[in-house]
Specification:
single chain, alpha+beta, Glucose Permease (Domain IIA)
């Protein structure tokens, strides 16, 4: 009788395990079927909601394990609905390997992988160096999609870096990536601006400059190379100054085929804030 009970309990336990595994597999198959057909929510992606400490953890982990950090970002963002704010969001147990392989074959994964490569692969330095001369500083907040009124109702598609010393032409601005100067010159809203296309396709936009370094459209630039000086140009015809405080407007744009859009630079800048060059300001 005792053996019979043990046998029955064993059968029940095995049945429970099998049911659990089947349910687990069914859910993952549903998950992958969804992502094979899904269209991502562009607004969620554009927020780039990945905190600097999460990104740094990923970089260290992937370097130690010889893994592709962009692959890890893409998978984690997909699974966590484009929000990586805690270390637990990037645990290694996200998906079994065979499901990872299947997910990586989807057009959605491939598209997002290209986007994250364009944003993250070429990052090197914060755009405003550390002031060794007077110890002046800069700060910034997440002003993504705040309202703007000049030229009609619109939204702020970047991050404003605000200096402690409100003097036009004082702060040097450097390229945060290697790349090619794709655009240089006056824009009514952006003032004197420069746009750098990085090797992996990101477009990094620096606006409201007071003046430029000696570079031209088509020139190759290196990360850390001087682009110009922070100012307050814009909101009028060429040469207009003083319509707002001195600051750097930093934007990041992606362009694949006919699709072009901005993404939030805030968390990218939070990561780069710990990677400042040191300059003697004049």
């Amino acid at each position: 009788m005792k053996r019979t009970r043990i046998y029955i309990l064993g059968v029940i336990l095995i049945a429970i395990v099998i049911v659990f595994q089947l349910s687990y597999l069914r859910e993952y198959n549903k998950f992958l079927d969804f992502y094979e057909k899904a269209q991502y929510e562009e607004d969620d992606f554009r927020k780039l909601e990945m905190t600097d400490h999460v990104y740094e953890s990923l970089l260290k982990e992937c370097e130690a394990n010889k893994e592709d950090v962009i692959e890890r970002i893409t998978l984690a963002m997909l699974i966590r609905d484009f929000s990586l704010t805690e270390r637990k969001d990037i645990t290694k147990t996200m998906l079994p390997e065979k499901y990872v392989k299947r997910l990586k074959k989807t057009s959605l994964y491939k598209k997002l992988y290209r986007y994250y490569s364009a944003i993250y692969k070429d990052l090197m330095y914060f755009p405003v160096p550390l002031d060794l001369t007077n110890g002046e500083t800069v700060g910034f907040e997440d002003g993504w999609m705040d309202g703007r009124n000049y030229g009609g109702k619109r939204y702020h598609e970047g991050t404003d870096i605000i200096p402690s010393r409100k003097k036009s032409g004082y702060y040097p601005i450097v390229s945060i990536t290697d790349g090619v100067v794709e655009q240089k010159g006056w824009l009514e809203k952006g003032g004197y601006r420069i746009g750098i296309r990085s090797p992996h396709g990101g477009y990094f936009y620096y606006a409201h400059l007071a003046s430029y370094a000696d570079i031209n459209e088509g020139d190759q630039v290196k990360a850390g190379q001087l682009l110009g000086f922070m100012g307050n140009t814009g909101y009028g015809k060429e040469g207009t100054v003083g319509q707002f405080i001195v600051h750097l407007h930093m934007g990041i744009y992606l362009n694949y085929g006919e699709e072009e859009f901005s993404v939030n630079p805030y968390w990218v800048l939070k990561y780069l804030e710990k990677r400042k060059l040191k300059y003697q300001f004049s």
